[in-house]
Task: structure prediction
Amino acid sequence: MDKKFKKNILKGSLATSLGTVSGMVFQFLTIMLIVRYVSKDEMGIYSLILIVSNMFSLIAGLGLDLTMVKSIASSNERENKDVLVPVLILRGISALLFSGIFIFTGKYILHFFDDRISQFLFYIPIMFVLENFRGLFYNLLQGLKYFRQYSIVNVSSSFFRIFVVLIFIYFDKMDIEALLIIEILATIQPLVHQIFVIPFKKYLNTNITLETFKSIIKFSLPLYLNNLFVFINGRVNILIIGFFLKPADVASYSVATKVPVALKKVFSSFIIVYFPNLSKLFSEGDNETAAKFINRSLGIFSLVMTSLVLISFIFKNEIITLLYSDLYLDTALVAALLILNFHIRGIADLMGYSFTPAGHPSIPAKVNFVSSIISVVTSLILIPSLGIIGAAFSLLIMNGVSSVMYYKYLVKYDIKPALNELIRPLVLLAIIIGGYYSIGLEAIIIQIGFTIAFFVLSWFFIKDVRMFYIAAKRQLSKLIAHRV
Result:
């Protein structure tokens, strides 16, 4: 990879990561406030409403998001000029269509979970239509490589959300309806912001033919199916928890997912840079550099995540108590398992995102079709018998299978990830966590000791740790020399 390409990746990743992390801090403050003013039961109902809204938003999305990113980021000028108008038209029609469908069928769908949700029926189509376009415009910023603007929108949105939450708390109005109003307002604000920063005029080509629509739909169809399967993979377990268990269990599981969801947002800030740049490399025929970029990304991600997974298992009770109070302490192990699951899912996603820019958009759909079957079957077996921890085990099984399938497809297309560099950190992680739990003591000295042992052993067994240290030392030396 040439220096200019690396510089663009680092610059873009830094811009989006700073915005995402800043926004994430505000979002965690928001959650920390909400769980202290809303009961577990109400939190569970609110979580189910969000899941239903997200489900319809995804169904109405038609898989157009990644299609637009790929086309806007393409080196082909005609391709990036012709995509926006058809995507807006298709997304608008689908949003109206599925809103109407939900209004007439929503009460029958919601009956399967909790009848109390039906009284908030008309909030849901408003939420998913707004979310539909907010997500689309985030993807447009991604395709345009407006990473700085993306970060500003993200941070301002999170700040606005906590501001509105504090107003409702001040007036003692925090209940389910207040949470839904907050959700709507916190979606409108970034949507308006995006409209002002996106140069729509430059890309509003009205000379669009029927062939353009056909081409977009043809490319989007496998992506759409993949998005549906991804939703089933990641969210069907919450719906099954809502069906078999109580709203309070939904709340506990939803709270346990907050740290993994936050990590996913940070991960997404890299994907925002990763996907369009990888698309550019493949569109230019530079497959060798693209393969190196994929391998480097997998190595760095695995290195960072093993450290976070270790901390989440060893300090699980302290983390949950600090973030959500001891009311949710029963979710500590589930939260740690979900962070481990995010590690495995992230590896699968980095491999999976490689196929669309490489011209194989059907591969993720095939993998996620198999994964969705595994997710549904294992969730139906494990959740009724084990409760919410069964949902975490279901995800681990599913994402383990996905990673293996993606790896085999990459090998098939001569893009071979360095398997040893992915497995070695996981093996070391398993040894350290296994040793810690075999002792059976949670004294702070022991916790710190095992954490230090992990990082020391990482130096000897993980090449990326040594490379990171050498690179950091080199940059520090340059900085000191420049200052002197």
Q: What stands out?
A: The chain is about 85% helix and 0% strand. The two ends are 31 Å apart (CA to CA). The CA atoms of residues 260 and 342 lie 6 Å apart. The mean pLDDT is 77.
